[in-house]
Amino acid sequence: MSTESERSKEIVLLWLAALQEGPEKAAEGITEDFRWVLPQSAAEEFGFPRELRGVEGLQALLSMDEKIYKEKHLGDMNMHFAIAEGDRVAIQIDYKATTMKGELYHNFYCFTFRVEGEKVAEVWEHADTLYVYRKCLQ
User: Fold this and answer.
1) Which of residues 3 and 68 earns the better pLDDT score?
2) Which residue in 9, 75, 116, 125 has the most C-beta neighbors within 10 A?
């Protein structure tokens, strides 16, 4: 693995840890033009925005989590793997939380990241959105 790849993976993993500390800490690790891209079906079927940009977008994403999970965005995240190539990082996780209805939520995600300098510039989220809908929004 190249030094750039190793550094990109390290930046992403540090940022994910900061995200667990709270939005303010996570905001320190993103670029000014940061964007988070949600699954297309989340935008088309549930009325979520397709892209969230900047610190405001990150805060909006985390506030969506506050409406869905009792733990907000602080559920149990188990990382299966992280792979890096250059400025790109891909991770697979499973995430457990309790829905606002009191039910167990356990979904699997793949995230792809793009790192710019020492910060996260872009996140693409891939998940089973039908499961999200049935467990949290229905």
Assistant:
1) 3
2) 9
Q: Listing from the earlier edge strand, what are the strands of the sheet with 51-53? A: 51-53, 30-37, 119-127, 104-116, 88-98, 76-85
Indicate the SS3 state at residue 17: helix
Domain topology for 3-137: Nuclear Transport Factor 2; Chain: A, (3.10.450)
Measured CA distances, 11 to 63, 66, 95, 129 (Å): 24, 25, 21, 27
Domain boundaries defined on the chain: 3-137
The answer to whether 77 touches 89, Cβ cutoff 8 Å, is no
Residue 123 CA to its chain's centroid (Å): 7
Q: What is the overall mean pLDDT for the chain? A: 90
Copy the structure tokens of residue 96: 């457990």
Amino acid symbol at 98: T
Tell me the pLDDT tens digit for each residue of 37-88: 999 888 777 777 899 999 999 988 888 777 788 777 678 889 999 999 999 9
* 93 beta partners: 79, 109
In this prediction, residue 128 carries a pLDDT of 92
Residues shown for the chain: 138
